[in-house]
Amino acid sequence: MSTTNTMPVLDIVFKGLGVTAIQRGERGIAVLILKDSTEGDPKKYYKTIEDFGSEEQAKFTAENVLYVKDALEGIPLKLYVFKIGEEEKIEDKLVIIGGKIPRNCWIATNDDTFKTSLLTWVKAKVKNNKKRYKMLGFKLTGADDMHVTNFTNEKVTFSDKRGETTGDKAIPYLLGFLAGISINMSAIAFELAKFKSVVEPEELDTAIKNGEFVLFNDEGIVKVARAVNSLSTLGQDLTVEMTHINTVEKMDLIYCDIYTAWDKSYKGKYPNILDNQMLLISAINSYYKSLARDYILDPNFENISMIDIEAQRLANASKYGEDVVAEWSDEKVKEMTVSTQVLFQANIKISGIMEDFKFPIYM
């Protein structure tokens, strides 16, 4: 005998996700890929420096021990570390990595021989496999993507005994730092005491406009100049808001929440009729309200999902004819669901972070 539980289950899932969104967005997950042939497999992940004791450190070179500690210093929720030996190919390892890491995470390597393959892989996974990986890399070529952050300072000076080094050595720390930032804050809000100073690009504004993530010296304190990703080519469906790391973090949180709720609680479980579609829309809109209460979405905007009338009208045209469906009212179109397809659209406004300040004072 079948259960009596129906659509409210999904509503509970979405409400639960909405209520916990701010907690889940407090810190993200980081994935660090290192070149290391030392024997021994690392733990599945590290949550704190306590997890990375002498037994774990023995599985890495001395240099890589420092990199893992750097990444943990940024306080990500979890840190996954993968080693690739001298005789291994990163392309083979990425198959394993992709099966172990979560859908939404930061991922980086500071190895120059790995970064191009990692960049190609991340872009493909985001585009083709519904992943929401965010890559951090050093002086990447051909990035130009909202899910890729391109760090370009030529040199940094660490506050510890390492002193001045090339910029790629800062990648592990910046990985943990970016993953560890709350979803309602921007990277520019922090003083990076990890570094004593940095070598800045000649023109900070030009670098930022080109989609470069750079650090600068602000009266003796190292800070992030602007928390931007590498997206620089704007156009249809790619707006300036999407160049901001924080905006993409929120986009990815919402995407993964809706994808997960649909995949686990709804897909294949209910008849595709208008009543069930409206219940799903109601659940998603309740989720949006929860996000607005936490200022992930703008509470002063009507964040709402709805049936995509035009898409559904077009999808019905091949069966009933264009002339026929053109005469249907919007309500009739809603009723005429299309086989297994659920065709929704949404209007939402993601809250930005206060970064720019203009304040003319007239006297």
From TrEMBL:
InterPro entries: Tail_sheath_C (IPR020287). Transmembrane segments: none annotated. Residues 242-328 form the Tail sheath protein C-terminal domain. It comes from the Bacteria. Belongs to the myoviridae tail sheath protein family. This is Tail sheath protein C-terminal domain-containing protein. The lineage of its organism: Bacteria, Fusobacteriati, Fusobacteriota, Fusobacteriia, Fusobacteriales.
